[in-house]
Amino acid sequence: MIDLRELTKRYGDTFAVRDLTLTFPVGTVTALLGPSGCGKTTTLRMINRLTEPTSGHVRLAGRDTRELSPEALRRGMGYVIQRVGLFPHLSVGRNVAAVPELLGWPAARVRARVDELLSLVGLEPGTFRHKRPAELSGGQAQRVGVARALAADPPVLLMDEPFGALDPIAREALQAEVLEIQRRLAKTVVLVTHDIPEALRMADFVALMQAGELAQFGTPDDLVRRPASPFVAQFMGMDAALEQLGGVRAAALARPGDAHGLPRLPAEADARTALALMLRQGTDGVAVVGEGGAVIGVVGFRDLGHDPRSGGA
Ligand SMILES: Nc1ncnc2c1ncn2[C@@H]1O[C@H](COP(=O)(O)OP(=O)(O)OP(=O)(O)O)[C@@H](O)[C@H]1O
């Protein structure tokens, strides 16, 4: 297990993380959840010592991580970030092989491992092994990133908004596959996200942070049904509104309008996905497209308040 004890990171007068005491149980997914700037990434980076704490400490399986070299520590922890950062000049296969090669595995074992991992993340090895990162879609590149993080079979996987840059359909597919892999391999996963539905879907436990401190740790059900403070109730309550949008098809809200410059959303997507796309792209609308990419109509930010099932109230 990973234990954080009174972990603090200060930048000048700002506490990015303050007195954080938290245990990530072995073989589970724990989401570090919270609004922008609450200290999620700083916490994750203190676990693998990409950021050194100002005070407090991290224990891994009972050992203070300061007793380990950062390199040895990181070898035991896969790390996946939003933009995977694959080596552009290396093939997909060589990217996945990077850590096993560093560890001096025999060539045949590395080759077998690369193929095993590509299959595991849903990429057919014969098709993808020799491709360059530039030839991949965002979702495929992110899959390679996950395969690379798992290459040396680390017991711990640290993931920082790993699905954040993906379109909604690729995101849901990869979330499902990462969950499936986690269940099969029983990795200890720490997942940074600000997306409540993602945390609810993926996490066994949620650590909700507020301004560098722990607001509540518990199961997703605990946080939704037994919030420890008004902040938790309000933050998790945003989800109820979002869930309602999840039941409405974006196509049902689409109306004629100027689709120029708007991000595109498939007609079968729901209104929650439309909202996520607007927030991510910084637009106040999306273009809903049908088969063949023809624009059906636009959904504006203000249209999201109108549920056609309730008569447009
Ligand atoms: N290198 C740094 N120097 C100064 N301040 C920093 C540094 N890194 C983070 N901070 C500050 O620490 C706080 C927490 O940042 P952190 O990136 O951990 O938040 P976060 O919850 O991951 O946010 P987001 O969801 O927006 O990525 C923020 O106020 C941020 O501005």
Automatic annotation (TrEMBL):
Q: Please give the InterPro entries that the UniProt record associates with this protein.
A: AAA+_ATPase, ABC_transporter-like_ATP-bd, ABC_transporter-like_CS, CBS_dom_sf, P-loop_NTPase
The UniProt GO MF terms for this protein read: ATP binding; ATP hydrolysis activity
Family label: Belongs to the ABC transporter superfamily.
The record's PROSITE patterns line, in alphabetical order, gives: ABC_TRANSPORTER_1, ABC_TRANSPORTER_2
Instruction: Spell out the protein name for this chain.
Output: ABC transporter ATP-binding protein
Q: Name one GO biological process term.
A: quaternary ammonium group transport
Q: Which domain of life is it from?
A: Bacteria
Q: Where is the ABC transporter domain?
A: 2-236
- Which keywords are on file for this protein? ATP-binding, Nucleotide-binding, Transport
Q: Which residues form the signal peptide?
A: none
